[in-house]
Amino acid sequence: MNIRLHIHACAPGQCLPLLPPAALDAACCPGHGLLAPEPWALPRLDVGTSLHGACGTPLFQITGRIWLPTPPTGESLPAAHCPLLTALADLPAGPLELAPRKEGLSLAWVTLSDKGSRGQREDLSGPAIAAAVGAALPLCHCQGFLLPDEPAELRALLTDLALNQGYDLICTTGGTGLSPRDVTPQVTAALLDVPLPGFTQAMLAASLAKTPHAVISRAAAGVLGRSIVVNLPGSRKAVVENLAAVLPALPHALAKLRGDPADCGG
What are the beta bridge partners of residue 172? Predict the structure, then answer.
């Protein structure tokens, strides 16, 4: 289904929300105005979705979603959870019809580190996730996040990334051991709809082949909404080793999660 909107003039890299008519009329914030279809009839616009023009050129990419603020007038409006459109070209203001298309997978990596969040330690593991996954899978969007080892913040972020933003794959790094501040596995496990014990077993086997200390890992993995969430260790080396154990299965797992009807056997 194509969507029609009245775009705000924008330059490459500029990010503005796609506003439903009521929000646009109330001038909550600058943005692109949705003309058709009705907001409730919009196709699913997960992070990584591109919006293509008439000639097939991608003009925008969905890079997030936001809740709209209440208008300054105090006018009451239905809650609106709006896609964020990042422009891929110089675009003048005016009406435009666009075709949504998702080509590739979206990855969010989350580094858990008290020192890292305070700027006292360089994050090497998060970028290592992006590099390893990007080398093995076709990525359309990749975004990193750095958090302290705080359960409430991790819980909120994982929920948002999976259920609101619609990332395909969410990898955490750090917080899987026995230190008092290591909370990643218990927070993750409490959120999962379906656990994936095969993932954790494969990662544990890969780690045990390198070090006996791997036995203390409590990493969790599973499905949250339509996303696969995987806990990885904190060290860059262990991140690469663990990912190598599960990356070959990820395309098949994600396809099945999205309803691929093909038979699994040969």
Answer: 110, 231
Question: Distance (Å, rounded) from C-alpha 228 to C-alpha 257?
Answer: 9
Task: Give the global pTM.
Answer: 0.92
| Domains in the chain, CATH or no CATH each | 3-101 (no CATH), 105-258 (3.40.980.10)
Cα gap 170→65, rounded to integer Å = 16
Q: Are 196 and 256 in contact (CB under 8 A)?
A: no
Residue 235 — pLDDT band, cuts 50, 70, 90? very high
Q: Report pLDDT for 31.
A: 85
More confident residue, 221 or 39: 221
| Tens of pLDDT, residues 81-132 | 789 999 999 999 999 999 999 999 999 999 999 999 999 999 999 999 999 9
Please count the CA atoms within 13 angstroms of the CA of 156 that sit on its side-chain side. 8
Q: Which amino acid appears at position 158 of this protein?
A: L
Share of the chain above pLDDT 90, in %: 79
In which residue are the tokens 């496990």 written?
A: 189
